[in-house]
Amino acid sequence: MWDPSETTLYSMMMFLFMETILEMYLTRRQISVYKQCKTVPRELQHVMNSDTFEKARVYGLDKAHYGMFKMIVCDIVILQLELYFGFMAMVWARSVEIAENIGLNPKSEIQVGCLFSLILNIIGIFKEMPFKIYGTFVLEEKHGFNKQTAGFFVKDQIKAFVVAQALTIPVAAAFIYIVQIGGQYFFIWLWAFVAVVSLVLITIYPVYIAPIFDKFRPLEDGELKKSIHDLASSVKFPLGQLFVVEGSKRSAHSNAYFTGLFGVKRIVLFDTLLVNKGLPADDPSLSESDKGKGCKNEEVLAVLAHELGHWKLGHVAKNIVIMQLQMFLIFLAFSKLFTYGPLYEAVGLPAGEKPILIGFMVIVMYVLAPYNTMISLAMTIMSRRFEYQADGFAQELGYADELGNALIKLQLDNLGFPVYDWMYSAWNHSHPTVLQRLERLKSLNKEGHKSKTQ
Ligand SMILES: [Zn+2]
């Protein structure tokens, strides 16, 4: 006899399996690039020596092999077993029992739901931890990127867990409550609630949450600070404070970003982006290997000109609008599907039992998986366009050469491998590769010269 819950389960398992196989195939393609490409591309020969190139190649290869291993263990073995044996339903049943034992009301879906989300998160930590430890203390360590001590790592993980629970449990409770009382159009209320929460989080995160994890110090007065303010005011960017974050406690990878939705914004520079971490060359905290690394002031400005491009061209606003629209569509789909019994039976619940949280997770993570995959590919493509546009903005401000130099420097400092398989890159990269960006900057510069002389 045809069983809709079995069909649902097997189609979900099948899709997730096929998606993982596709990702493994793409990684395989990139692995053969790492294996075959042993000489520095012509465009980079004057800046990248064969020694650095070889280091980047081995680093890339190690990461790709590790990625393959992780996909097999997590996405093929664990995920498929969890689905087949009804892992979520087991956790739900345990949550009901525990709720009873610790004096909560096992009939209250909100109370059981909070417990369920806590237990699921704890199990999630145990699943992820071996990979995190290996990734940080073996893989990154081997290639000289890990700067975390064991003590820092443990504290960091505990803080992250506590902050995550403080945010997810109340949201989960409110979520269930809204579905229970929201009536036929509960998805609108749900959307409004999540939209407000996410906007509040985006606003308070840099001020109250990020400092729990990392140390921020104001950028010292001086030439760099003055030029950044000049650059910001030249494009009418409402710059408030300028911070340097000790990203180097975590890892040696470098970056810069700005935060703040409304009103004044802050710019955050990773200390690893700056020459000598933005400190005087004789600062006692600088190690020999840190000295001389980082970008010159003009290059830091070029990186910021790119970031300001994202703001000026409305990329941030566009991303937020898309995110909200996305959320609305997901809640709408959820409201249409969540009463369908076989979805719950598919993940192992007894007939008639339909916990709201599980329904939401099954629909978002599994039923909508094909849709999510398409959207994420579209977003990756859009993000690459935004990157080119922001580079174009920096070029118009006259920073093309410095931006090119900064991109090369960051690539070298981060041991990024410059050559990619096109299919792997199209699927995975939110940024065009450095070679593509240099190429584009060069042609923009040529066009710029042409239009100036005309
Ligand atoms: Zn960018």
Automatic annotation (TrEMBL):
Membrane topology label: Multi-pass membrane protein
Active site, renumbered: E307, D391
The compartments listed are: Endoplasmic reticulum membrane
> What biological process terms from GO does the record include?
CAAX-box protein processing
CAAX prenyl protease 1 N-terminal domain residues are 30-215
Q: Which UniProt keywords apply?
A: Endoplasmic reticulum, Hydrolase, Membrane, Metal-binding, Metalloprotease, Protease, Transmembrane, Transmembrane helix, Zinc
**Transmembrane domains' residue ranges:** 7-26, 72-90, 110-126, 160-180, 186-208, 320-344, 356-379
| Catalysed transformations (reactions) | Hydrolyzes the peptide bond -P2-(S-farnesyl or geranylgeranyl)C-P1'-P2'-P3'-COOH where P1' and P2' are amino acids with aliphatic side chains and P3' is any C-terminal residue
Give one Pfam family.
Answer: Peptidase_M48_N
Where does this chain mainly localize? endoplasmic reticulum
* Cited function: Proteolytically removes the C-terminal three residues of farnesylated proteins.
Q: Which PANTHER family match?
A: CAAX PRENYL PROTEASE 1
Name the protein family.
Answer: Belongs to the peptidase M48A family.
Q: What is this protein called?
A: CAAX prenyl protease
Q: What is the species listed in this Swiss-Prot or TrEMBL entry?
A: Anopheles gambiae (African malaria mosquito)
